[in-house]
Amino acid sequence: MKQFTFFGGKGGTGKTSCAASYALSLAARGVRTLVVSTDPAHSLADAFDKPIGFQTVPLCPNLWGLEIDAEVEAKKYMKSIQDKMLDLVSATIVDEIKRQIEIAYMSPGAEEAAIFDKFIELMESVGRDYDVIVFDTAPTGHTLRLLTLPEILGAWIEHLIEKRQKAMNLMKMAARYDKPLAERIANDPIIQTLTARRDKFALARKYLTDREASVFYFVLNPEKLPILETARAVDLLSRHGIAVGGVVVNKVIPPDAGPFLEKKRLSQEGYLREIRSRFSPMPIIELPMLDDDIQGMDQLQTISALMGGLDS
After folding, report:
1. If we measure between CA atoms, which residue out of 37, 27, 90 comes closest to residue 62?
2. Mean pLDDT across the stretch 299-311?
3. Using one digit for the tens of pLDDT, what is the confidence trace for 187-211?
4. Range with the poorest average pLDDT among 38-42, 64-68, 119-123, 241-245
5. How far apart are CA 60 and CA 158, in angstroms?
6. Helix, strand, or coil here: 138?
7. Where is the chain membrane-spanning (predicted)?
8. Which DSSP string do the residues of 89-130 spell out, in sequence order?
9. Please, which contacts does 54-59 make with residues 24 or more away whose CB atoms are closer than 8 Å?
10. What is the C-alpha separation between 253 and 262, in angstroms, rounded?
11. Is the dihedral of CA 265, 267, 270, 271 positive or negative?
12. CB neighbours of 56 closer than 8 A, spacing ≥ 6?
């Protein structure tokens, strides 16, 4: 059992049901578990058949739920940046700073950066508020961008710090005979802010690449496109040092499904052989296609025992 477990994959494969049932299996064992959705099209509340929003809510003993609202988090994120910037600039450019922040809020990547801040906040709560966190992530491409942010932005922030330090060294030379200026730049708030940001990304990368702390499971259906997408994603995460613990093959048609589904079942058998070959020796869990959508605790419990096998 890891502190952080991520479920990802192509949209519509059943990530949410798998994340929810796995979280339920942990809670049943007495593990204080938070299940979190980072998917903009939240369906965690539908899976549990209970309202879940961007405030943590209890779902059952030892289990809590949270749906991260990207828009809410982005507004909080941009406001925190604005507040810091307004403390650093003169009153004459306050309106311009606010305008630039508004533009930044609309820019690509703003919501991902905000979600990642929430990610880190939640990760730091493990051991205090919860024992483990189970993440129901967005479809593959969005999730891969999110999980590789620490490596990409960490290097970019290092570059900004280096540039700022060079500028500060020049200012210190100019302030040699200007005591008020020397006092203002003694503890540069911009370097402090950048350094704190760098340290947060470093902490997130430490969590994500620690194989004892974090693991990622891909959920796929026995079909061609999910197999290809999963193979590419496994390769990318491995190159970034993020452990892939195995794959969950969902919606496997059982042998007694009847003649109407026989052709589809035979097609699935070929894809199942490919999955077993391509993703070996990683653990592979196969979940049967159910006769109804999973909604509510009773239905989640039908597959939670199988999902609990991920820890074995």
Report:
1. 27
2. 76
3. 666 667 777 777 877 787 888 889 9
4. 38-42
5. 43
6. strand
7. none
8. S-GGGHHHHHHHHHHHHHSTTHHHHHHHHHHHHHHTTBTTTB
9. 59/35
10. 9
11. negative
12. 34, 64, 65, 66
In a domain, 58, yes or no: yes
Percent of the chain scored above 90 by pLDDT? Answer: 32
Q: Which tens digits make up the pLDDT trace of 132-189?
A: 999 998 766 666 666 666 666 666 677 777 777 777 677 666 666 666 656 665 666 6
How many CA atoms does the CB half-sphere of 77 hold within 13 Å? 23
Checking if the pLDDT of 45 tops 60, the result is yes
Range of the domain at 115: 4-75+105-220+239-245+287-311
> Does residue 159 lie within any of the structural domains?
yes
> Which amino acid appears at position 72 of this protein?
V
Instruction: Read off the pTM.
Output: 0.80
Evaluate whether residue 211 is within a structural domain. yes
Q: Give the domain CATH number at 47.
A: 3.40.50.300
Which two structure tokens, joined as six digits, stand for 186?
């003694």
Could you tell me if 54 and 44 are in contact, meaning their C-beta atoms sit under 8 angstroms apart?
no
Mean local confidence (pLDDT), 219-242: 91
DSSP run (H or E) holding 73: helix 70-88
pLDDT of the residue at 105? 41
Number of H helices, E strands in the chain: 12, 8
Q: What value does the mean pLDDT take over residues 9-26?
A: 90
Sequence letter at residue 207: Y
How far is Cα 140 from Cα 275, in angstroms, rounded to an integer? 18
End-to-end Cα, the chain, rounded Å: 9
Residue 229, domain member (yes or no): no
What is the total count of domains within the chain? 1
Give, to the nearest 10 degrees, the angle between helix 149-174 and helix 110-123. 100
